[in-house]
Design brief:
Blueprint lengths: L62 H44 L5 H7 L3 H13 L13 H10 L12 H10 L6 H12 L9 H7 L6
């Protein structure tokens, strides 16, 4: 086998691409920018080399006045938040009450379901709720202070088969479910009419709607 010829690296031919050499002598450096020193204006210094110092006298504020102003600002912010919350709640309640009033006006003369609901006795309402309680495997919690009517209405709010309960009056929601042939309980309508007769307009608003519209401040 003839000996192979050893090629020596020479200057690159014209038009050919030059190759990089990574030998021990090769070193890649980055261009450095000389740091520019900022010249200080000699006019800012005195003859002794120290800057001029200008003393500013700030009148001292009374501690009592400062505390009083902070208390007034805090009370103003709290008053604005409470006023805004009351305005929001009042507006939502008024909208629900208007819906309920419109349902009463539209239902004049009374429908067959409303006439039937007026004749529902208290014993039938209690029997209806007892049947709902018997279907549960465990007793309800946090409802010890609620009346029977409020328990029935809150259960109706959480019955999703009758549609959403937020932003709509309970009476309007019952009639809507009836028009859609969802067959809502007549006992719920009887409770709503009883509360309407007592002048309890707040019973038209779902409790879930109150929770979603409320604001909590955690300190």
């Amino acid at each position: 086998m003839p000996p192979s010829k050893r090629r020596t690296s020479g200057p690159a031919a014209r038009g050919s691409q030059s190759t990089l050499s990574f030998g021990s002598r090769a070193r890649v450096t980055k261009p450095s920018i000389a740091s520019q020193t900022k010249k200080k204006d000699p006019a800012l210094f005195e003859k002794d080399g120290k800057p001029d110092v200008v003393e500013v006298t700030v009148p001292a504020r009374d501690v009592k006045d400062q505390k009083k102003e902070e208390d007034e600002e805090g009370e103003g912010e709290d008053g604005e938040e409470e006023g805004e919350q009351e305005m929001t709640t009042t507006t939502a309640e008024q909208a629900i009450m208007k819906q309920a009033q419109r349902e009463v006006e539209v239902a004049t003369p009374k429908s067959k379901q409303e006439e039937e609901a007026e004749g529902v006795p208290e014993t039938r309402i209690r029997k209806y709720w007892k049947g709902m309680e018997d279907e549960r495997k465990a007793p309800r919690v946090h409802q010890q202070d609620l009346t029977l009517n409020e328990k029935i209405l809150r259960h109706f709010d959480l019955s999703s088969q009758y549609g959403p309960c937020i932003g709509i009056a309970r009476l309007k929601r019952w009639h809507r479910a009836q028009n859609l042939n969802l067959h809502p309980p007549i006992e719920v309508l009887a409770v709503l009419m009883k509360e309407e007769g007592r002048g309890n307009r707040k019973s038209e608003r779902a409790y879930v709607d109150e929770l979603m519209s409320s604001r909590f401040v955690i300190e």
